[in-house]
Amino acid sequence: MKKLRILLKIHNHVSIFGFGRILVFLFALIFSSLALSQTINIEWYYDEGTTFIIDEIYQRVSIGTIYIYSNVKFKFYVIPKVLDVQSVTVTGVRIKNQFISMNPSSPTIVTNKWVYGTMVIYFSYIEPPEDFKVEFTFVFLPL
Q1: 30 and 55 inside one domain
Q2: Which DSSP helix (H) or strand (E) runs through 66?
Q3: Are residues 3 and 45 in the same domain?
Q4: Digit-coded pLDDT (tens) for 92-102
Q5: Does one domain contain both 3 and 65?
Q6: What is the pLDDT of residue 36?
Q7: Which 3 state secondary structure label does DSSP give 41?
């Protein structure tokens, strides 16, 4: 939750009308900051110690079940980063039947406040890679 700090200087010559406008302005700022606060909850069920096997025909792997839900509508995108190897790229991330954007300029819009299902990662490579790790950064934005 964002903290809102308001610094006011009130001079001795403030009229009642001016002070009333300041109070209304403060109330509007505080109310808008409370009304716009957003909570994102993520539950991801997978075993961190497990080695996941890539389906070599479709070049994809399922990585457990993920639940992403919020108190308000939101949009988000994911930034995957392949570690340890140069010859592998992530071409897609899907949760249930919905592909998640990997482009910051066009994030995935979630109007029903939740996304859940099996998370599937799609790869591109020429030779089947040895062991490697993938790091995911999820970026959430207000709608």
Answers
A1: no
A2: strand 60-70
A3: no
A4: 999 999 999 99
A5: no
A6: 58
A7: strand
Instruction: Kindly state the DSSP code that residue 55 receives in the 8-state scheme.
Output: B
CA 57 to chain centre: 30
| Tokens at 7, concatenated | 């610094």
Q: What is the pLDDT of residues 6-26, one digit of tens each?
A: 333 333 333 344 444 444 444
Claim to verify: residue 25 and residue 48 sit in the same structural domain: no
Which residue has tokens 């990585």? 63
Token pair for residue 37? Answer: 């606060």
The predicted structure's pLDDT at residue 20: 44
Q: 97 and 60 in one domain? A: yes
Give the length of the chain: 143
Q: How far apart are CA 75 and CA 98, in angstroms?
A: 13
Write down the H helix ranges in the chain: 16-35
Taking alpha carbons only, the member of 37, 63, 38 closest to residue 50 is 63
Q: What value, to the nearest 5°, has the Cα angle with vertex 120 and ends 115 and 121?
A: 120
pLDDT of 47 above 70: yes
